[in-house]
Amino acid sequence: MEYTGSQYIGEFVDGRMEGKAEYILPTETKYVGEMKDGMFHGQGTLYFPSGSRFDALWEKGLVVKVSLNSPTWTRLEKSLPAAMTAAMASTTPPQG
């Protein structure tokens, strides 16, 4: 999954984002964690510009388990637009 204006810092395998990585969306929301086959996969955290974070276990770009040890949705991310940003970041197919 790549968004126009995003930045990827990490490894590639067969031309796809894979391994430990940092992915910064145009909204300045940042994902730090594991990638596989170009998608969030494994343990990873979304960091929002407001300072909030969303820790989760990801599988093929989708959240499968939210960490109970993290301060999830600690600030403004309780809003619908923020929840939609997290959902879009985990479900939008690659472009291009």
UniProtKB/TrEMBL annotation:
<dbReference type="GO" id="GO:0031514">
    <property type="term" value="C:motile cilium"/>
</dbReference>
<dbReference type="Pfam" id="PF02493">
    <property type="entry name" value="MORN"/>
</dbReference>
<keyword id="KW-0282">Flagellum</keyword>
<dbReference type="InterPro" id="IPR003409">
    <property type="entry name" value="MORN"/>
</dbReference>
<keyword id="KW-0677">Repeat</keyword>
<keyword id="KW-0966">Cell projection</keyword>
<keyword id="KW-0969">Cilium</keyword>
<dbReference type="InterPro" id="IPR042814">
    <property type="entry name" value="Morn5"/>
</dbReference>
<protein>
    <recommendedName>
        <fullName>MORN repeat-containing protein 5</fullName>
    </recommendedName>
</protein>
